[in-house]
């Protein structure tokens, strides 16, 4: 069985990190597969939202598979090659135009934190634990994941988490804004999929446009980015979905959006 599984239920696709006997530690091959399957789901028009999760309930993922480091990160050349694969995985999720949710049970550590932060939202089960132990391995965490951590929790908490390499509990993660929902273990899965099915019922152009607007705001509203947002707004206004949304409202029925 593959270490990265893809399942689809209607408009919602699930990408599962599937190494439960190793707390879903992510191997080099799995980093490459994460990037590949994400790109494939981005290109599938039938998919409107994505969930990233670990197999079982012990761990989202315990991070990168450190047992590989003596071979795959043993010197500058291999480290650069390894880092390029992890960054490809992170950026594929970060740049996905569709809504993404990390559904987190148990441990979410190291590289798994970067996977979770690359998602739009993080929903976690009670008892989840978070941490970036890079300082215990003499590793400097990547600039993009650190930037996302700063955006989520602010610079002081980001420094605290990185300096101390400590484990952050579920309540603290919610309080500082790292996760957006904290639910009982037996409610997390149903809540996550119900939430995304509702999102998938909305107009895809509007949802993607909202995601792009937030991303470009954070990147800086340069003249070029403002022009891009104006073009997106006009595209939505001229779409068939806009006409359908208006008709459905006037006819007092649920709209049937097609993403065009």
Describe the structure.
Helices cover 51% and strands 16% of the residues. It starts with a strand and ends in a 9-residue tail after the last helix. The chain folds into two domains: 4-199, 2-enoyl-CoA Hydratase, Chain A, domain 1, CATH 3.90.226; 203-251. It has eleven helices and ten strands. A six-stranded mixed β-sheet has the order 1-2-3-5-7-10, with helices on both faces. Strand 2 (12-17), helix 1 and strand 3 form a beta-alpha-beta unit. The mean pLDDT is 93. The longest helix is centred in the N-terminal third of the chain and has 19 residues, at 76-94. The chain is an alpha/beta fold and 260 residues long.
> Considering DSSP H and I runs of 4 or more, what fraction of the residues is helical?
40-55%
* Secondary-structure element string: EEHEEHHEEHEEHHEHEHHHH
Query: Which fold does the CATH topology of the largest domain refer to?
Result: 2-enoyl-CoA Hydratase, Chain A, domain 1
Radius of gyration over all CA atoms, rounded: 19 Å
- In total, the number of strands is 10
Beta-strand share of residues:
15-25%
Major β-sheet profile: 6 strands, mixed
Would you identify the CATH H-level superfamily of the largest domain? 2-enoyl-CoA Hydratase, Chain A, domain 1
Which runs of at least 5 residues are low in confidence (pLDDT < 50)? Answer: none
Q: Give the count of structural domains.
A: 2
Query: What structural category characterises the helix and strand content?
Result: alpha/beta
CATH architecture of the largest domain: Alpha-Beta Complex
The geometry reads as: globular
The whole-number mean of residue pLDDT values reads 93
Total of DSSP H or I helical runs spanning 4+ residues: 11
Cα separation of the termini? 37 Å
Cross-sheet strand order for the largest sheet: 1-2-3-5-7-10
CATH class of the largest domain equals Alpha Beta
